[in-house]
Amino acid sequence: MQFLRIVVSSIATLFLLLGCEKNIDINFDPPDIKPRVDVKLPDADADLPNIFSRLDIQFSKNKIQVIPPLDDQEIDTLEQQLPCKLPPILRAMYRWHNGIVDFTPTYEFQALDKVVEEYKFFKRFHKENGLKEGEGWPAHFLPILQFNGKMYVALDCKDQDHTPLFSYFIEDGTPQAMYRGPGHLLQVILGSYETGAYKREFDLMDRDPIAEDKVFRQYAFASELKTMERNWVALEKSLTTTQGDNFNSVTGYLFEVPDERGIPILVDQLRDADAEKIVHICLALGGLKSEKARPALYDLLKHKSSRARNFSASALSELRGPQSQAETDTLLRLLEDSDKLVQLSAIEALRHAKSYRAIDTLIDKLHRSRPGMQVYIIDTLADIGDRRALPALKELQASFPAKLDNTRYGRTRGGDPSPTDFKSSVDEAIRRFGQY
After folding, report:
1. How far apart are CA 184 and CA 90, in angstroms?
2. Would you list the domain boundaries of the chain?
3. Which of 124, 205, 259, 352 has an alpha carbon within 20 to 30 A of 389's alpha carbon?
4. What's the pTM?
5. Is there a contact between 168 and 152 (Cβ–Cβ < 8 Å)?
6. Better pLDDT: 143 or 161
């Protein structure tokens, strides 16, 4: 499940970690999920000036940083250091912008000099470690998009008439088709921005996988749509027939096959589910970001298991729709839960909903909490942006001594920060209020 490994949301990452805790039955037959992209089909015939113009509007709207373009001579110089010529669409992209920091919620569009640098690194690494052709990074892959130095979308340039893009996870080494070419990539990304599948949430770019999948389907060929429907049928069968720990594993495939038809199946599976199964279902429901999951997640806030309460609140924090008054009130009560992790997840859910009704309760909680909890509350107050919180933050700022301990702490979730980091969080929150 390569796509699982390149999802950057905390829910997907945590899902993988939890999935590794359980022993899966060796006789378990996972759903047979095929790549939804057929790389033998042609790239999209993209209207580049129109796409670039509309994307620039979205970048401005979402405060996305772009790097000034290259001219033809600069591109020629860098291109000579690569194993092939850049396809015309990719060349046009570098004449548009020489890199885009948050090109998608997952990936950065790399500057061409960075592409050259990383390609040379892979080539040198292969030579130093005696890797043969076909081992490690493919010689004809250009690392166009990257995340975290390990996850890439690479353009296959071995055939100038046909240049598909593949996801490539360094620690796996198995390419997986993502787009039929740069034109297809641009169409899907533009559609995702304009439909709201991609948008900025606070200081990060956010991705709605179901909405993104709907955009992808608009630009898919009939054969690709047939493959996607076949994938859903295979996944649906596994979701409805698999039992025990194997079911927890199957829910992860919903990140590869994001489909709202999976929501009622997951909700139905909550009946008589133990805490561990509830955790995996919450991770899947939160990762899919569908508002259809909200009622079921709200009910779990009152569950007897603290893990169920924790992960349901965390999943609610991933949803984009408004909170009801009843949901807000329940989350506020969870600020006094016996489990600290439940309290933190409730704070995050209030933060993502920008709940103005929570301000007074959060300020009261701020005065009664340790620094690790206070940092979560401070960030939440700053994100909500209600100026009623400003006096409490300034009071906290004034309480710091002139000289602070600069020691860096290794922190767990909700663990206390160093005094320097703590003050920095307070200072940054107050600074942000000056921008409202």
Report:
1. 12
2. 37-219, 357-436
3. 205
4. 0.88
5. yes
6. 143
